[in-house]
Structure formats: structure tokens, C-alpha cells
């Protein structure tokens, strides 16, 4: 449906995340994938959605010079915000363990920012979802990390995986946002850009 409005545009998804790519397919969007490496470093003073907004915009920078008039580049970033700290992707088993243990029996926020860049403009949107974990046992945490190796996921977990099925007791907001893309916002923003 949305493709009709976007037929004069070329959508570029700058993400190697299979989850984000699958969401774009499920939205019925025609798109191409382009990847450029970016050091995901942000200024220390940024807080909450400022971090994911900044990183989503940062990921668009390497593409700016090559965008054509009809291109819409989509970049995004997801963080987990817990105890006033941004939890990114864990670099080790211990770091993943510490993240999950800190969220056990507590509520955290998952924030995904999506940046839409054209040759002449840029718009960034974000969604915030509150997620509550039950009390996670050491056995459950270690089993999850060893089995699913969540080193490519912010906050060391994927809601669509085993830990989400057995550990999450409440979710307030967009589910797809926690997986990695607030699809309702992507659809709404692309619709507004195409009209």
C-alpha cells in the first residue's frame, strides 16, 4: 500500500540487522541495503533518547554526499536505558551477565531512534517502550547467554528469544520497538514524506 506513494523514491536501509530488514519486508517496502562502518561513540553529556537520536544521525553521515534527489536513507539505533545508564551491546559473557542481572525484577526502557535522511533534509523520530523482567535466576541468565549469545543486542537480550518468553512480565509501548524498529513510526514518517 505504502509503495504506491513511495514509487518515486528509492529507500535505502543502512542496517545489517536481520530483524530490521525483515520488518521492512513485512511493511511491504521496496528497499536496498547499503552499509558503511561507523564508530558508535557519543558525547558523555547526552541522556536517554538523545543518545539513540545522535547515533542514528551519526550513522547517516557517511552517506550524505552520495544521496540522489529521490533517495531516502533510513538509519537507526537502539539502546536500553536503565538506572540512568545506556546499555549498549555487551562485549563479553560477564558484561552480558551484569546487564541482565541489573534488569532482573525491574523495569527498564528500550529506546529506538530512526533517522530519515534525504539530499536536502533530515528527520529523526524515536519510540520508548517500558519492559519489566521477572526475577531472573543465575541459571536462566547463564543459559540464555551461552545458548543465544546476545552480543549483537542492546541490553544483552532479544525480546523475541527465549529470555523474552520466560522472563518478561510486562511491556508498555511498542513491541516492535523492543525488537529494534518502531514500525508504526517508520510507516507514519514515510507516509508523511511521500505526500
Mean pLDDT: 95
Number of strands: 7
What is the helix tally?
8
- Given helix and strand content, the structural type is alpha/beta
Largest beta-sheet details: 7 strands, mixed
* Uncertain regions spanning at least 5 consecutive residues: none
- Give the ordered list of helices and strands: HEHEHEEHEEHHEHH
N/C terminus separation: 13 Å
What does this structure look like?
The two termini are 13 Å apart. The radius of gyration is 17 Å and the shape is elongated. The chain has helices spanning 2-5, 18-26, 49-58, 93-103, 138-148, 162-167, 175-179, 183-194, and strands at 10-13, 31-33, 71-82, 85-87, 107-117, 122-133, 168-172. By secondary structure, the chain is of the alpha/beta class. α4 crosses α5 (138-148). The model has no long low-confidence stretch (mean pLDDT 95). Strands 1, 2, 3, 4, 5, 6 and 7 form a seven-stranded mixed sheet that branches. A hairpin with a 4-residue loop joins β5 (107-117) and β6.
Question: Briefly, what is this?
Answer:
The protein is α/β, with parallel strands linked by helices.
Helix-strand blueprint:
Elements: H1 2-5, E1 10-13, H2 18-26, E2 31-33, H3 49-58, E3 71-82, E4 85-87, H4 93-103, E5 107-117, E6 122-133, H5 138-148, H6 162-167, E7 168-172, H7 175-179, H8 183-194
Parallel strand pairs: 1-2, 1-3
Antiparallel strand pairs: 3-4, 3-5, 5-6, 6-7
Amino acid at each position: 500500500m505504502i509503495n504506491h506513494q513511495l514509487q518515486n523514491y528509492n529507500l535505502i536501509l543502512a542496517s545489517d540487522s536481520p530483524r530490521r530488514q525483515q520488518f521492512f519486508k513485512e511493511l511491504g517496502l521496496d528497499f536496498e541495503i547499503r552499509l558503511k562502518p561507523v564508530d558508535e561513540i557519543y558525547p558523555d553529556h547526552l541522556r536517554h533518547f538523545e543518545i539513540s537520536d545522535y547515533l542514528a544521525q551519526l550513522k547517516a553521515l557517511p552517506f550524505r554526499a552520495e544521496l540522489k534527489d529521490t533517495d531516502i536513507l533510513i538509519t537507526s539505533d537502539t539502546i536500553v536505558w536503565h538506572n540512568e545508564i545506556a546499555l549498549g551491546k555487551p562485549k563479553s559473557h560477564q558484561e552480558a551477565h551484569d546487564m541482565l542481572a541489573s534488569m532482573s525484577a525491574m523495569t527498564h526502557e528500550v529506546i529506538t531512534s530512526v533517522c530519515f535522511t534525504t539530499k536536502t533534509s533530515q528527520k529523526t523520530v524515536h519510540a520508548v517502550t517500558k519492559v519489566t523482567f521477572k526475577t531472573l535466576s543465575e541459571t536462566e541468565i547463564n543459559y540464555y547467554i551461552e545458548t543465544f549469545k546476545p552480543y549483537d543486542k542492546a541490553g544483552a537480550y532479544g525480546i523475541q528469544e527465549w529470555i523474552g518468553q520466560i522472563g518478561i512480565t510486562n511491556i508498555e509501548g511498542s513491541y516492535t520497538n523492543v525488537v529494534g524498529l518502531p514500525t508504526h513510526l517508520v510507516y507514519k514518517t514515510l507516509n508523511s514524506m511521500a505526500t
